[in-house]
Amino acid sequence: MRYLPKSPAERAAMLERIGVRSADELFHAIPEEYRLRRDLKIPRQMGESEIIEYFRNAATQNGSGFASFLGAGCYRHYRPVVIDSIVQRGEFLTSYTPYQAEITQGTLQAIFEFQTMICELTGMDVANASMYDGSTGAAEAVMMASRITGRSHSVVASTVHPEYREVMATYAQHQGLPSLTVGYEAETGRIRLDLLEAAITDETACVLVQSPNFFGVVEDIPAIAEIAHAKGALLIVSIAEAVSLGVVRPPVEADIVSLEAQSFGVAISYGGPFCGVIATKEKFIRQMPGRLAGQTHDADGNRGFVLTLATREQHIRREKATSNICTNQALVALMATVYLTVYGKEGLRELALQNMAKAEFARKALSAQPGVKALFEASPRFNEFVVVTEEPVAAMQARLLEQKILGGVDLSKWYPELGQATLWCATELNTRAQMEAAAATMAAREAVGA
């Protein structure tokens, strides 16, 4: 009854109400050869306790007890338990888009607080809370720049997350927005400024870079902004690892910031749902996609919140719409709001410093092993780094897995020129023992070979 709550009597009453005598009569329009006349080939039904035990056992096969050094856009950070306690409240969990301000003050205030925190972190004037994730946010930012400038081309750093660039290509193929990719310096892992300057033309709407970039390297945003602005192009900075803003200087020179806020208390959850954000200068607010909550006062002077801006087809004429993004990401944004409230300014900075310190320890531990070399060592980094090994990546990862260690991401798919390179990430959840175990496993290959 818990899973199939309609009793036989209730089903009979429903059939009688619609004027048929049986379920077979209800489905009489379906040809006989397409009807299933046997039981489904599924296991027997289980009780609640059996179902819970089943999923607990299944979870042990999904990396439980493994040390993970995976990053590349999805980051493992500790989630304070208070997050789920708040977001599972019915007024948040079941609410829809807050059109009726008089009954959705809590949701609107949560969005407003989220926008305020994002602006403080990024150095921008306004922020929305309605992108699906960082990849769609980056693509929407490029289209936004095209509307603002009246230009149609974009220049994109090859160190922007490869999957972000794939999403951009999907968006652009029917938008008439060609892009040119600019390479990186082999020594630093940063975008090549000489190639960037040569790539920008009178048709370039924007330059898109990521910082920290896909290699974990912090880009020189002021220098990039100067080059872009000198030729009338806007600068978009994509941020995939939001915790970096606790210590990395905010990209105040940017015109648009596209942020993935997953690191702020949003579980990885097999890749989503995540929390994309666009933040920008106030003068560009009318071209910002998504929705914007604002603060106001009622006739009695009481503070209140309203949906100030919503520029998709549902709200305004299609030709004036800035986006077709329509999912309400407010619940996921609420997770980030609670997370940032719990940590506060000093807590977020301390967390970011822990990430930097642990990544640096891991980088030194790995690169100290024979046959392992760290790349881009002269550049500032956050919590990710690249190493190249003499051992084939697949063999190395297999040996690490035997020790319950999820090693770095194989970069050969996107950056074959780097050889046998992997991207490693260390956060506050990685222990010294895990890092030393990874380094010892890397060294063990040399010992066996000797």
Word description of this protein:
By secondary structure, the chain is α/β, with parallel strands linked by helices. The protein contains 13 helices and 15 strands. The protein has helices at residues 8-18, 23-26, 48-59, 82-87, 90-93, 105-122, 134-149, 162-172, 193-199, 221-230, 330-367, 393-402, 432-449, and strands at 67-68, 126-127, 153-157, 179-182, 204-210, 234-239, 256-260, 276-280, 291-297, 303-310, 372-374, 384-389, 405-406, 409-410, 421-425. The strands form four sheets. A seven-stranded mixed sheet has the order 2-8-7-6-5-3-4, sandwiched between helices. The longest helix is centred in the last third of the chain and has 38 residues, at 330-367.
Write the layout of secondary structure elements.
Layout: H1 8-18, H2 23-26, H3 48-59, E1 67-68, H4 82-87, H5 90-93, H6 105-122, E2 126-127, H7 134-149, E3 153-157, H8 162-172, E4 179-182, H9 193-199, E5 204-210, H10 221-230, E6 234-239, E7 256-260, E8 276-280, E9 291-297, E10 303-310, H11 330-367, E11 372-374, E12 384-389, H12 393-402, E13 405-406, E14 409-410, E15 421-425, H13 432-449
Parallel strand pairs: 1-13, 3-4, 3-5, 5-6, 6-7
Antiparallel strand pairs: 2-8, 7-8, 9-10, 11-12, 12-15, 14-15
Helix pairs in contact: 6-11, 7-8, 11-13
